[in-house]
Amino acid sequence: MGNILNPVGNNSFVELAAFRDEDVFADKTDFIAKTNKRFDRDGNLLVFARPRRFGKTVTAHMLLAYYSRAYAGQHIFDGLKIAGNDSYIKHLNRHDALYIDMNSISSHFKNYLKKSKMVQGVESLVDYLEYSIIRELREQEDFAACFDKNEIENIGLPEALSALRNDLGVKFVFIMDDWDLIFRKYRNDEQLQKEFIDFLKGLFKSDDGLACFSLAYLTGILPIRKDSSQSGLNTFSEYTMLDPVPFESFFGFTEADISEIMKLPSCKLTQEELKDWYRGYKLNGSDIYNPDSVVSAVKDGKCKGYWSGTVANEELARLINMNFEGLRDDILDLIAGGLVKFGFLMFNNDMVTIRSKDDVFSLLVCLGYLGCADYGDCCRLAYVPNREIRSALASIARMQSWYNSMPIIERSARLFNAIRALDSSETAGIIAEIHNSPCVSLLGYYSAEALACCVTGGLMWQTDGDYECFRKLQSGKGYADVIYVPKRNDSLPILLIEFRHDTSAEDAMNQIKEKEYFERYRDGDYPNEVILTGLNYSSKTKEHQCLIEKLQK
Fold first, then answer.
1. Per the structure, how many domains does the chain have?
2. Per-residue pLDDT tens for 39-70?
């Protein structure tokens, strides 16, 4: 047992499983039943690419704890889903596992370079990776006899693994976490990238190499890069945020997972709060929550934005500022609730070869900044998945020098000011502008709810930060469609908006008054003036109708 061959230290899954009755834990061990079906068969080379903070390492640690013989006898999986599967005992802790954490390898390599005496031929990060694996194999007592220890510098990893297979019948489970680190951290070092791909090809392209592995599982943010140098890795089956089928339920927390988490005594949050903040990644019809954010929120007892980090923010700003084909406008529209169609098949699966808006959106989906839905014809619909991501994107957008000059920002101010001025005609006209924009038209416009999304998206840039926006809020004798309440400024008005489809603006206004949605805001804790707005869209005339009044207290 070492750092790579059958390691046992700092296993995040084992720690979570041990305290699963007390801490946030989603039982995803049925995923192991899926990998067992691929064991020693075609399709046993897997790449799972998903965003940071989406449980990549926990899943890799789960597979290690299940397959590696180093965990034998620990009863880690007792009572979990996989324990009821027919294949459970067959593979439980019966294999030798090579577990490679590329972040650790990178860190160890930096320390290695500081040493006064270096191993001959070990000059690059990839050299060091191969050297480290071979060294641990050679130091394993059961394997030592297969190698001449005096020729450690002269033997390659494929040959070492083949010797073990031929002499001892040993096959390995190969698990690599952050497989794409070299393509992200050393994005401009083409030589190092080529060395790394050649390393993987040596293991997984030739028949001799493939015969040494019962299963290979690579996880990272990016799919395997699409170019001629890496075409040799087409033996891997890839599952990504762009195309997760049939493993979509294992990419994050599902509704069923959240329902179980809500039962924890330590969870003081409502399911609606978690849904608003962290749900929204729709993968083949499944609603997926950001797992790390949910865990953090439950532990803190508060929903807030955990999606932060200087490096990630800088990367997003870099992509937006490329401004392919009006990209900045599209990003602002997405933040406000719109949809953007994009193609993903030409995406090169890297962070350097970005040639179009389609590439940017494909990368942002892989990074988790956008969700996507199938749109047919090899296209996807991009959208901002939840409140957490919307807040992060909006904060980054506001920091850019071009922000205040963007038409969508100016339009949001015009809409807010028109409502505040009780200008029904101007308000209806601006809403029509928003409705006719490409991003909103993709939503469909067949209900009062669609009109509500159009208006709240239009107001977002002017109200975000100063207002709390409530949808379907219980108020008076019913549930108001939308209410904007100022957070701390008495000079700003409360906006109360009701929507209709194919009736009339008068009908919407009458609803507000008959149900007395404004009653709680007449006096007391709310000295603000209250503006009532009734809106209707006619599918026959394609016109927006609006009535605006100030509440007389």
1. 4
2. 999 899 999 999 988 999 999 999 999 999 99
